Amino acid sequence: MSIENVFLNNIWYYALVGEQLKCGKVLAKTILNEPILFGRTLDGEVFALRDICPHRAIPLSCGRFDGHEVECSYHGWHFDKGGQCTKIPSLTDDQTLNLDLFRVKSYPVREVQGNIWIYMPVNSSINGSVNNPNNSEDEIRASELDIPEIIGFDKFATSQAIEIMNFPCHIDHAVVGLMDPAHVPFVHRAWWWRADPNLSEEIKAFDPSPYGFTMRRHQLLRSTFFYDLIGGNPEVEISFRLPGVRIERITTKQHTVCNMTTITPISENQTEVTTLFYTTLPWVKALKPILLPFVRTFLNQDRDMVVKQQIGLKSDPSLMLIKDADTQARWYYQLKAEFTRAHNENRPFENPVKERILRWRS
User: Fold this and answer.
1) Counting Cβ atoms within 10 Å, is residue 26 exposed (0-12), middle (13-18) or buried (19+)?
2) Distance of CA 147 to CAs 5, 51, 151, 155, 270, Å?
3) Taking the mean position of all CA atoms in its chain, how far away is CA 295?
4) How far apart are CA 361 and CA 171, in angstroms?
5) Does the structure show a pLDDT above 90 at 217?
6) What share of the chain has pLDDT > 90, as a percent?
7) How does pLDDT run across 143-174, given as a tens digit for each residue?
8) Per-residue pLDDT averaged across 59-78, rounded?
9) Inter-axis angle of helices 327-344 and 171-179, to 10 degrees?
10) 3-state helix, strand, coil in the chain (%, to 5)
11) Contact criterion met (CB below 8 Å) for 296 and 330
């Protein structure tokens, strides 16, 4: 089976911005075709359950949450933050039933730098029941994988600006489109980004990095309006890692700006793209209402290409990737294939990316 158009399991996915989930509240989302109910207890602890009651399949998000337990709206069954059933109101006092036999699938979740991540195991579609074990094995596997962090910022730092957008495509096309270096002068042509239509040769060095690759830090030969706002002589480093996390780090003598773009599959043809900005610039929050429309326009330009691409993909054409401009896309598919093989063969992941210089015109 081709690894293209296949979702990766047993890996951390970006779920949502932490501030979206208030204490004592729940929020329903779909990730990898799975209905997930995220919640935050009154104590501030985040949890995630499969959003389906194992009794009669009513979404738990249709019920009530008291800050500690979720109550199903159909028959009032109660489930704690770990998915364990704690109460079945229809039982009489003399009826005994082992409630340990009834549970909802729960997922490992972590909150890092103001972001909530969810670990999606390969058995994520199993219903909670007597045959469904707890998530202890998933927690062990999840703990073996680190969660992306923005280096240089406090562990508890939160982003200063956020933009969330839905792309009507499979995650693969969103990832490949956003890492594509050759589309910029054609898709993002604007006075504030790339007004010059002339192409120039780009030469960039790449190294393998955890579950992905990194474009080495280099000085920008061609600046833009936004880079100029950060300060003189900006240097850039860009990293990518599975399943779809791109971190761009821009540094000057005075300041640092990092943008993390996360790509989370909702379904086979819907993908959520979240861009978060972390920076030492003191004026970003004040100018956020002015700057975010530019970010939205930039992402919409990528989204428009994806929408047009879907027209051609309906005919199921063979897609051609060339060297060197499409090498990052090739690496992405190789990384996916190796991650899947390593898990299936119960062995450590071996990064297929090697140190390399890539050249293209852009």
Assistant:
1) buried
2) 23, 24, 12, 12, 23
3) 18
4) 26
5) yes
6) 69
7) 999 999 998 888 777 888 899 999 999 999 99
8) 98
9) 140
10) 25, 30, 45
11) no
For residues 358 and 327, the answer to whether their CB atoms sit within 8 Å is yes
* Three-state DSSP class for residue 358: strand
* Domains by residue range for the chain, with CATH: 11-143 (2.102.10.10), 161-361 (3.90.380.10)
State which amino acid sits at residue 140: I
Per the listing, tokens 């596997």 go with 141
Mean pLDDT of the chain: 89
- Helix or strand (DSSP H, E) at 29: strand 25-31
* Joined tokens for residue 50: 């499969």
Q: What's the one-letter identity of residue 301? A: Q
Q: Would you say 324 and 204 are in contact if contact means Cβ atoms under 8 Å apart?
A: no
Radius of gyration of the chain (CA): 22
The CA angle 67-21-39, to the nearest 5 degrees, is 45
Pinpoint the alpha helices (H) of 71-149.
136-143
End-to-end CA distance of the chain: 34
- Spell out the alpha helix ranges (H) of the chain: 136-143, 171-179, 184-187, 225-230, 284-313, 327-344
Q: Which residues of 94-125 are buried (b: 16+ CB within 10 A; e: fewer)?
A: eeeeeeeebbbbbbbbebbbbbbbbbbbbebe
Reply yes or no on whether the pLDDT at 14 is more than 60: yes
CB under 8 Å to 343, separation ≥6 — which residues?
A: 9, 10, 122
